[in-house]
Amino acid sequence: RLELGQGWIAELNRERLALVRVPPVAPETGIGAGAGEVTWGAWQVRWGPGPGGQPVRRDGWTASVLPAEYQLTGWRPGDRIRPFGGAGSRLVVRCMQDAGVPRHQRPGWPVLRQGGAVVWVPGVCRSDAAVPGDGMEAMRIDVTHT
To answer: What global pTM score does this model have?
Structure first.
C-alpha cells in the first residue's frame, strides 16, 4: 500500500494493483428499538421488527438479532468475532480477507456491535451473539451498498 496524496492510494490486493480513493469512515451510529433507516458512509441500513428463528447466514446482507440497542461502527484493528456455528473467535480482518474485502475498504465497512462485542459484519460474518430463537421477538437489519 502506498499513499499517493489527496485521498488516493496504490494498493496491491490479491495480486492486482489498484489506484483507489479511500472512502471516509462514517461516525459511530446507534440503531435500536422500533424501525429506522440511516445512511452510514456508502451504506444504507434499515431495521425494524422481524420474525425470530430465521436461518442464519454467516455471510448475508440481512440479519435477525434480538431487539436491543446496537452501534454501527467501522472495523477496528484487533476486532474479534465468534462466528456462528464455529468454535472460538477469529480476527474480523481475517474474515474480511477471506470474503475478499479490499484493504482500503475495511475501515469504512459496517460492523454491528452490542456493548463493544462484534455481532455482525454484513456480507462477511455473523457471530453467535444476539441470535433470536424460534418464536422470539427479533429485529431485522438490512444493509446495502449505495
So the answer is: 0.85
